[in-house]
Amino acid sequence: MKKDAGNRAETVEGRRANARGVAAQIAQSRPPEERLPLALVLTPAERRALRAAAHPLQAVVMVGREGLNDAVLREAESAIRAHQLIKVRVLGEDRAERQLILEALCEQLGCAPVQAIGKLLVLYRPSATA
């Protein structure tokens, strides 16, 4: 016997619909100056599929000695808008700094971290048309 989904949150479309509803409620309850985009949350299965899809990709954005500046953010924004799934290479030896860069990129771009291995970061943001 096939199990009926019943709860909308058990399907991908249902999770997206629920997230949009919650985001709208939160956005309406806050003053305009405090409204921030909600973080994109991925399920383990979605993260696993995105890691597999990112495996053959090359890094399209590099964060160099200057760190995370406006030029890097603009380049990352255009790359993630065009490809949805990107790799970012962070030059530098400090692991904590790389983690801070990952968090800042996700916050600024409104994307989800998929994976961080060594100096490579994988980011995902669904297209606005989806």
Tell me about this structure.
A hairpin with a 2-residue loop joins β3 (112-117) and β4. The protein has helices at residues 12-29, 44-54, 70-83, 95-109, and strands at 59-63, 85-90, 112-117, 120-124. A 4-stranded mixed β-sheet has the order 1-2-4-3, sandwiched between helices. The chain contains 4 helices and 4 strands, in the order ααβαβαββ. The two termini are 32 Å apart. With 130 residues, the protein is of the alpha+beta class. The protein folds into 2 domains: 1-38, no CATH class; 40-130, YhbY-like (Translation Initiation Factor IF3, 2-Layer Sandwich), CATH 3.30.110.60. The model is unreliable at 1-9 (pLDDT under 50).
Runs in which pLDDT lies below 50 for 5 or more consecutive residues are 1-9
- Number of helical segments with 4 or more residues: 4
Give me the CATH architecture of the largest domain, please: 2-Layer Sandwich
- Calculate the terminal CA-CA distance, rounded to whole Å: 32 Å
What is the molecular shape?
globular
Largest sheet features:
4 strands, mixed
Instruction: List the secondary-structure elements in sequence, H or E.
Output: HHEHEHEE
Judged by helices, strands and strand pairing, the structural class is: alpha+beta
SS elements, strand count: 4
Mean pLDDT: 80
Arrangement of strands in the largest sheet: 1-2-4-3
How big a fraction of the residues is strand? 15-25%
| Rg for CA atoms | 17 Å
Our count of domains comes out at 2
Question: At the fourth CATH level, what is the homologous superfamily of the largest domain?
Answer: YhbY-like
- Overall helicity: 40-55%
Question: What is the CATH C level class of the largest domain, in words?
Answer: Alpha Beta
